[in-house]
Amino acid sequence: MVNHGGLKTKPNQESKLLKQQSNSVIMALRDQPYLPLYIQDIMTDEKLNECCASTHGVYIKGIMCLMHKSATYGKILLKQKYKQIASKEDSKGYAFASQLVKHLPYTQQEIFSAIQDLIREDVCYFDGDYLCQKRMIKDNDISIKRSKAGRKGGEASSFASAKSEANTENESANEDIVSIKKEFALQAVEINERRPEPLDNHLMHDEGEGFIPYWCEHGINDKKVRYQKEKSFDVHRRLTTWKSRDKRFTASKGGFRDKPDMAWYNSCNDVALTQKARAHWRNTGWVAVKNKKGDTTGWAKS
Asked: How far is the C-alpha of 224 from the C-alpha of 135, rounded, in Å?
């Protein structure tokens, strides 16, 4: 359609205008049941206005409609069996008229005359074995580019939305885990304080051996902590078991643990006891780490 054909580009219709084939190539506009025209363009197109009235009829209610339904939008392919006619008559226009007469309500001569008129006024043109309309081809190219751009934007939007939903779910799961751990810690501390022989701060909170960190352990994607995975769990009984398994003081090891306990060491005011502890830790392969003043700040494995 030279300066008078067009494609509607309303946002809510554009997604319907183009479909994606299995090879990711978008199908032509021929899938649409309508052929929109710009009336002002038709009325003011100088090239088309140079054509006779019968040419207008064959062109609009004929050739354009067939081009719209053609496999290659805006083009009509001359079939092989009509190419012999073109060579005999020395005219592609006559060969196309012979092909199109079976599809249009016009005589072969009317179609032939219209094609000659359209070619002469540069409304249509021949490109190899194709009868072409420049505006329709251009409209199709623009529509394909817009559809591809829209699809990419839609895919990006869908991905961002899915990612956002996944992040929201993860954040919600993390919040649940934090809440569970806090609730368990408060309950364990409260029960421990009511016990005749409560566990000390080290046995309750130490990251390596503490009761609370151990039973609140969980994997990155877990929605439950360790104690929730047990078939039964009684905090009071578990605290009793935890204390009985503590090897802080054992007669077989001189009353000290093999691993230095700096929390106990710093709080102990019994010099003789701390000296025994130091001797025991040195015998088990530990070396005291001291500051410039000579004070022990920690222990390192030798």
From this structure: 64
